[in-house]
Amino acid sequence: MNLFGGIEAGGTKFVCMVAGGPEDIRAETRFPTTTPDETIGRAVAFFRPLLPLKAVGVASFGPVDLDQTSPTYGFITTTPKPGWANTDITGRLQADLDLPVTFDTDVNGAALSEYRWGAARGCDTVLYITIGTGIGGGCLINGRPMHGLVHPEMGHLRLPHDPKVDPFGGICPFHGDCFEGLAAGPAMRARWGQPAETLPVDHPAWELEAHYIAMALTDLVCTLSPRRIVLGGGVFNHPGLIEQVRVKVQELLNGYVQSPVILHHMGEYIVLPGLGSRAGVLGAIALAMEI
Amino acid sequence: MNLFGGIEAGGTKFVCMVAGGPEDIRAETRFPTTTPDETIGRAVAFFRPLLPLKAVGVASFGPVDLDQTSPTYGFITTTPKPGWANTDITGRLQADLDLPVTFDTDVNGAALSEYRWGAARGCDTVLYITIGTGIGGGCLINGRPMHGLVHPEMGHLRLPHDPKVDPFGGICPFHGDCFEGLAAGPAMRARWGQPAETLPVDHPAWELEAHYIAMALTDLVCTLSPRRIVLGGGVFNHPGLIEQVRVKVQELLNGYVQSPVILHHMGEYIVLPGLGSRAGVLGAIALAMEI
User: Fold this and answer.
1) What number is the ipTM of this complex?
2) Distance between CA A128 and CA A230 in Å, rounded?
3) 3-state DSSP call for residue A4?
4) Contact criterion met (CB below 8 Å) for B15 and B61
């Protein structure tokens, strides 16, 4: 049995795992994200006694450089997180562990693990969207993580925004009322003056939130034509939100996309993650398996 | 030298070609699209004396079924074009010519030919958008045409639309003011009361048109992160339009996507097609080569 290492590299914490898959987890640890030296050093110290491993995968916060022809491939690049801009996390792990390292965004990792083991099994085109402190999106096309010039920034989609219905101007420092500026957790807090998780079930905040999420998903369906959409992140802990999103996506598409799953089985099309709180680090394990 | 057949299957005309590539064109013909029997029959009659060919590619108008596990794979599906709904164009060609047939959308074909031989050489993630009578988009990811549940319908993106600036409600029968409903040729004609090609260079129509195109491209950059964007279709015959689009995309992204080509070389990022009027049928040849 081949064993793999996985690192969910988050802005707040790192989760490290050694596993052959979700049914064969051999070791796991988590620790806060401090300086790059200390944090990457702790990851290396975790893996070293567990060698040999076939490869290590890193599912990272961003922005990151995924261009294999770039001199800064495998770097965390322009992050505002103090000390982490231009960190060669991939090179450091490769050198210290003498192992191949695969590197991708946290959301591409989550899309891959949901495809391999979770809520998107059998769907080689998967869209994974997470909505929490920020909004991010990952996608597999033909079973492989989607890269390109840089990587998707689906949180920054520009959506229709009617100021008569929602006079809130949005809080994205770059774009004001983009998707993240209107619908991430901090935007909900700024619009309503209280944290999203304290808003009652019948508060109009939730219908508006479902509307923006559905609008973004409609645009993403028209662009990517995913076979399944997995929705992660804290906002979906709200009861009933995903159901409202499904209804609104169907209304917005208005019968244009003639696919039975969209026309008749929306509950199988837009789903919650299957891997729970381990989705992130299992995404890193799945990336390691892509070697 | 291997030779391939290509069919650009359009709603108005079919273009057929036998070639080894754009520098090695052996035969070419075009004829109007009438009934499926007659039109596919004429294509078969064109190819038969030119056999043997290695494969035939079809770059088709849509919607089409690209799901290889579907019983209607290779069909033109729900088109309103009389007589063409549920036409098994792929099966018919395979049976009559006894050759492998690759089948895709016209815009995926165009993306592929621009990648192989045209304005997107070396860019394995390419977005091709055409704006004319309708709006369509094709995309290569990792050098391969993007498929999924069905295929992209990028003309139906929902964009910010400020009725104070543009009170025109859009003409899409499904979505009203989606991208196609606001910005395709017929929408321009309906908004301004005259065909787009008769609007003078300094008419405000063009700045509004550039605005909607740039808004859509901004969303597509955030979703797909293409390495290059190729813009085809009649509307780009208008002098200066692509230049306006480049400026507005840069303004809308507002420095968020930290890539040198977007920050400093927009003229190399958003470009016109390199293959001119043969892009469509050469797309079909390129599809045949994917066998």
Assistant:
1) 0.94
2) 5
3) strand
4) no
Phi, psi of B201 (to 5 degrees): -55, -35
Q: Tokens at residue A196, please?
A: 């999203």
Residue B205, Cα to own-chain centre: how many angstroms? 23
Residue A173, H or E segment = none
Nearest CA in chain A to B221: A152
DSSP state of A200: -
Collect all residues of chain A within an 8 Å Cβ-Cβ radius of residue B170: none
- Residues of chain A neighbouring B219 (CB-CB closer than 8 A): 157-158, 219, 223
Q: Does B219 touch chain A (CB under 8 A)?
A: yes
Contacts of B141 in chain A (CB under 8 A): 141-142, 144, 146, 148
Nearest to B143 by CA among A101, A142, A288: A142
| Rounded Cα–Cα distance for residues A220 and B96 (Å) | 39
Q: Buried b / exposed e across A78-87, counting CB within 10 Å, b at 16+?
A: ebeeeebeeb
Give kind and range of the element (H or E) at residue A212: helix A204-224
HSE-CB at B15 with a 13 A cutoff on CA atoms is: 16
Of A142, A144, A151, the CB nearest to B225: A151
Q: pTM of the entire structure?
A: 0.95
The single-letter DSSP state of residue A87 is B
**Token pair belonging to A15:** 């989760």
SS3 per residue for chain B: CCCEEEEEECCCEEEEEEECCCCCEEEEEEEECCCHHHHHHHHHHHHHHHCCCCCEEEEECCCECCCCCCCCCCCECCCCCCCCCCECHHHHHHHHHCCCEEEEEHHHHHHHHHHHHCCCCCCCCEEEEEECCCEEEEEEECCEECCCCCCCCHHHCECCCCCCCCCCCCCECCCECEHHHHHCHHHHHHHHCCCHHHCCCCCHHHHHHHHHHHHHHHHHHHHHCCCEEEEECHHHHCCCHHHHHHHHHHHHHCCCCCCHHHHHCHHHHEECCCCHHHHHHHHHHHHHHCC
Closest CA to A47 of A30, A27, A61: A27
Tens-of-pLDDT digits for all 291 residues of chain A? 799 999 999 999 999 999 999 999 999 999 999 999 999 999 999 999 999 999 999 999 988 999 888 899 999 998 888 999 999 999 999 999 999 999 999 999 999 999 999 999 999 999 999 999 999 999 999 899 998 888 899 999 999 999 999 999 999 999 999 999 999 999 999 999 999 999 999 999 999 999 999 999 999 999 999 999 999 999 999 999 999 999 999 999 999 888 899 999 999 999 999 998 788 999 999 999 998
Cβ B169 vs Cβ B177: under 8 Å:
yes
Strand partners, A18: A5, A27
- Which of B69, B151, B158 should be substituted to probe chain A, the one whose Cβ sees the most A Cβ atoms within 10 Å? B158
